Every structure is written in C-alpha cells, then in structure tokens.
C-alpha cells in the first residue's frame, strides 16, 4: 500500500486555493517540477527523478503599476501542447483562462515565440469557472454552481457537446480520462460522468469537507482526491459504457487541509499533495 | 480573491477584541460605569454608519499593517489606554482566535454565522444605549443584504481570502494550547470525524448507476465516524446560530491568559509583499476613523493591561521576537499621535483630530459621530 516518502520543502507556504499544486514530469531529462502558489509568489521546485537534488526557485507576479500591492495568483499550471509545454499563471489582474464572469478564453499559442493571441471567448457558464481539463479534442469546464460543460474542437472552434447541471455546490476540480469525467465538489462528493453522453456513472460521498483537487493517472485510471478533511483518497475508474468507480485507499495527513494533489507517474504509483499554510510537498509511493 | 471580505474580517476581529477587553476590564476591577463607557464608545465607533458604508464597498483587504493600525485606533476610541506591549498581545489574540474560527468552520457559509455570534455579543454590550443599538442593528441589515444570498462558491472565495490573510501566522495562544485545539507548532488541531457541514452527506457510500439510471449502493470505510448536521443556523437578527465558533470563549473561569508570555510567536519569514505599499483605501478609512474618534480624550483616562502586572508588561515589551514578520509593525500609542515615520506613511496627512473640539465629556464622542 501507499507509504509516505521524503517531502520537499518549499521556500514559502501554500495558499488556500483549489488545485494548488502542479506537477510536470520531463521523462527524458529525468526531471520533476512542482509549482505551488503562495499569494503573489509561485514556489517552484525542480527535483531529479531519484530525489537526490532539489532546486527551489521563486516566481514573483509583478505589475508595472504596483500602486495597490501585488496581484494574487489564482492558479499555476503546466499545459502540455503538441509543440511545447507552457507554464500558465492566472492572477487577480492578468490573464484568466477561465474567468470569474464564467467565460472561457481560448488562446492561440505559437510553437515558438511569445505572440499569444486571444482567439475566442466562450460564454456558456453562468458562474465563475473553477477548473478546466482536456484530453485530445475534448475540453471539460466546471463552475462555481457545480455545472460541467463538455466541449469538442471542430476545426478551430469549440462547441458544446454536453451540459451537466450542478446542484449549487462548486465543482472545484475536474479531470478527464478515456472519455470519463471525474468532478470533485465542495460538498465532498465525487461524481463520475460519461463525457460523450453526460450520463452519471457514480456519485460518491467521498469526503467530509470540500474537495479541493482531483487527478487521474493517465495510464491506469487511478483517481486521487484531496480535501479540507485532511484525507487523500485513491480510487479506480472503470471505463465502461456507464463509467464506474471503486474505492481503494485513504490516508489522513494530521491537521493539514489538503488543497493540491497530483500523480507523479502515469500508473498512479506515486503522488504528491500540498496543504494550506504548510511549506512541504508530501509524497506517497505505492509499494507494489 | 473576494472583494467582499473586508467587512467580515473587520467585524469578527472587532468582536474578538471586545471579548478580550470586556474580560480584562472585569479582571482589572475597572468600575462598571467606566467599563460600560469603554465598550459603548468602541462599539459606537466601530459601527459608525459612514465608516460601515465605506467598509462594505467592494474592495481588497487591507495589508496586515494597515489592519493592525485600524485596530490600534479603535482600541483607543474611548477613555481606555493600552501600551504597546498590551496592544500587541491584544491584536495577536484577536487574529489567532478568528483564524481558528475560519479554519474550523464546517462550511464557508458558517463564517456568516460566526460573524453573527460576534454581533450578538456586541449588541448585548450596548443594550442600554438606544443610539448605539440602532447602529448595531443597521449593521445586521447590511450583513443580511450583502451576504445572506451569496452562493456557496462566493463564500468559498471569501474563506480562502481570509485564510490567505492569516497565512504564516502561527502564534501560540495559551487558551488554545490548554484546550488542546492548537499544537505546539502553532497549527490548529483538525479533528477527523464529528459533525458534517450542513447540507452534506456522510462519507462512505458509492452510488453506482447503470445505463437505465438505476442505482446500487456500495459502502466503504471512511476511517472516521461522522454525524449529519440536522439544522442550519439562523441568519436572522436574533436566532440560534448553531455553531459555537465566534462565541465568547473567555469567562472569569477561563480568563485571557495574563501570566508570563502566553503568546509565543513563530511567524514564518513569509514573502508578505502585500505590506509593501500602504493602500489608499485603508488610508482613507483610517482618516475617517480618526476623525470619528476625534481629539484625544484626556480626562478620566485609565490604562488597561493585558498582563498580570506592570512588571510583566515591561518584560514582554523588552522581548524582541526574532525573525518575526510582525516585528515590522509599528506599535502606536494613539494618545501620543502619529509620531513615528512608519505610521505617518500609513496615515498620511491624517490629523489626529481637531484638538480643540473634544474634551473628556461622555457625550462628545457621540456628538462627533453625528456631525
């Protein structure tokens, strides 16, 4: 079963934000990168695969007109595009990929250079966007009222395929794997949907407080959910006609409200989590 | 970050301040009449209509420094004086108490119930004074208008904004340590199990649906025992808030700890760059607040002590915390006016009241507020 591994200590503590841990693995360089938001600073740790060397650095979000202090960062994420991987930040006053007004902004990222252009603004959500996930030509967006929209890319524009109405509790984190959507809700529920039909496969009373992050290991369909209730839980997806989910394992991190969590490998054998007000990234490794 | 957080932060910190002052006024055997005047004056200033209207406008939170200065002014809105060491201790106790309440709130909307618990006690302090009571009642209405209809998501954002304001503050508080709700490293104990947030279900069940929508339940062991919450707290002007968070935790049998350095700071050297610039809004509010408080009240002044005796207070004052972010905070004895340059930077051109206008008469403060 899962065993706690050596943590990485960051230069600053973790802010209370959903999905506040991004991991990016560069396999051919045997390098792992982690990013965690601390107010207007992003603490980045670059570790070698064997964990022997960890280099920390800080990225400070500044603005030329700093009359009102520094803008808080809302999200930091690595985005893998076919030609390159980019590190995207969204802040209080800056680029917002999913915005507070419920719009999704689509950007054209060139394979080289910095000429990023706003391509499209998708306005279908009636509340603030909480999280986005994508797989192939499918995009999933989740909002503050718990609604989930599935989009498909046709040519150069995205169109709505499925609209799943929420119950009023925010869907804080959403993940997509083999046409299966997993949403983590502020009510503590995990919900599993088919991305094609929008049909619900399972509803799980998973946590005792808000779920702040979910992730799916892309080679195995193992699911990670983390919550304010100090628990991380491991699940297994079954990609059937109507997708199903099974419970595997739970770990409690004493007195830590977990706000970020991601698998480190494709199989879901190693994972990392962060908690509010702590400056450590905690690791767990499955022994067999 | 939510732009609707400032009123909640201010009212709850203010509520905690009143609890501590109330308890210390009793413990120091201050005559009832004087104590009443102090509580009355401070509540009246805090809930001044114009000041509240400014506070309720959508805006970012003050920097930590500016917030501290506001409460420094507020604590000196009456005939009571606190020296720097006592003020430091008061502010630390207030902030850690509210950080505890926000951290332990079952769901984000409980922060409104916590606020109402503070409001309820503050209203009881001014029950005899019709003028101040109506000010307090006005704030109840403002709270209802602004917050009662907010979605779970908006409250979640408010809670995150508050938690990030308190991030890296790990001051140990003896009443929390004694109750075993805080660890020695300054972190709060988060018990697993117990009552669930209102409107949520007990963990441990998978409802599996088939193609026809029929469901089948599969249980799993969640690792703790949970109780479903039966009733939602009342958001009315009077009612059962259900949650005990935000109620007065001090009493004669559970006093504000005064012996020794009950507080030990271990504030992480954070990158708190939000303190780099004095925000113009906070400055404007401070300005307004100081005009409301008016001239220094000199007659009948007395000094309140957050320590057992003067000796301990002096000792506390002489201990300089190491590597503490808060040590940059200026300690202000408001009765001396804004002497330090740091303070001047925050307060700007703020004048410490129209010196000729105020005397020591009881009615003066209220008069000033009405004008």
UniProtKB/TrEMBL annotation, chain A:
SMART domains (UniProt xref): WD40
Positions annotated as WD repeat: 204-245
Keyword Repeat among UniProt keywords: yes
Keywords: Repeat, WD repeat
InterPro entries: WD40/YVTN_repeat-like_dom_sf, WD40_repeat_dom_sf, WD40_rpt, WD_repeat_multifunction, WDR54_beta_prop
Domain WD repeat-containing protein 54 beta-propeller: 95-284
Repeat as UniProt keyword: yes
PANTHER family noted in UniProt: ANAPHASE-PROMOTING COMPLEX SUBUNIT 4 WD40 DOMAIN-CONTAINING PROTEIN, MITOCHONDRIAL DIVISION PROTEIN 1-RELATED
Entry protein name: WD repeat-containing protein 54
Lineage, highest ranks first: Eukaryota, Metazoa, Spiralia, Lophotrochozoa, Mollusca
Automatic annotation (TrEMBL), chain B:
Positions with biased composition (Acidic residues): 361-371
Example of a GO cellular component annotation carried by this entry: cytoplasm
Region (Disordered) residue spans: 251-276, 350-371
InterPro entries: OSCP1 (IPR019332)
Coiled coil: none
Protein name: Organic solute carrier partner 1
Naturally occurring in which organism (per UniProt): Plakobranchus ocellatus
